[in-house]
Give the backbone structure.
Amino acid sequence: MILKIRASAGSGKTYTLTRRFLALLAGAQTQSLSKGCVVIRRDTSYSLPEILAATFTNKAAAEMKDRVLLNLKERALAEKAGSRITEGSVILSPSEAGLWVERILRHYGSLNIRTIDSLLATLVRISALELGLAPDFQPSFSSVEYVSPLDDSLMEDIRSDRESVTTHTPPLFLSCDGATLRSAVEKGCASLLTLTDFKGFTPRRCLHDYVLELVERLLAGKEVPDMDASAIHARLSLLHTSYTRAAERLLRILSDESLSVNANYMKYLSRCCSLEKLSGPPDSVYADKESLEECLNKASRGKASEAASAAFDLFFQEQLKYPRSRSLFRHALQLAPLTVLAKEIFSRMSAGQSEKTLLAANRLPYLAGQVLSGDYGVPDALCRLGSRLSQLMLDEFQDTSLEQWDAVRPLVVESLSYGGSLT
């Protein structure tokens, strides 16, 4: 069963999810029914450890745990106190609620309410040795902790590599030679000066931000292809030529037909025709005009030929395409020389990872996906966890990244295939 709850912020989604957890608890067996890899059950019964609620923050997880225990406590004490049961309390007898409170407090780790990052970290930790990680690794959510030290070390090695011929043994580079990396730094600095609005004398921090963007893609298991700056320049040149020629054609047809055109629109067209390469399109309210008639003076409205209207439509499409594509290609040019730096940092992060206790948190979805991949990934992971996950709940699903969802999807499929649920 799949249950979807949609509501605005503050309307009680987490409260509803807590009630859902309690309702599932009411239907749970009081004893653990399986050890994940020992017993294969064909029925739909489940126990407490098989109910999983994944929230987005530690605060939300703690709040939900408190709510579950508070509701159970209120129900357990209701009969003795003779008080009215509060609305939303789970349908359990006071004695049953009391037993659940006792079991949860005795085996608090079985109360499976955690953040989605905690779930991913657990999946990675149970296969840490196979993944080449230290079993006691700690996820790091700060790039300053896991990238900045390596970035600083790389820059120092690149500097010292130039001096190594006469001074000392050259530093060890893992992905390419020092000259290639040094050239990448120089080209990266040049890109900052020509392609961005960077102002100042020390581009180091700005370069670091661009390199970090690429490193985080590699950490997430995404591809970072080597980019040919000359090919990107060629694409930009074609884009620019297509834009200016469309403006020139429209301007020529308007002149040939002797149409009375708004003077400001004619100035705008002239600026578009003379646009320098790599420059952005000129700002004008006429860039938003969707028909030629809006740009003509009253005397010429309704007199434009089909050719003039077609030329306007073509230029209008170029006006839409050029800014978006130009921004994309310019960003690619900024990153192109820095891919080798990002790959060197990533190689250094991966080297000796089994001895490091710090792991980039955005690496978790990719690694968890590896753990659960293949025909035996999910069964093996559940065996190591010691229990199935039959009833799954995901709070704040809109904040769950695509990578996180892709990682846990095999668990969801497994749960639903055995008659479980997803909320």
The beta strands are 51-55, 113-115, 138-140, 358-360, 391-394, 421-422.
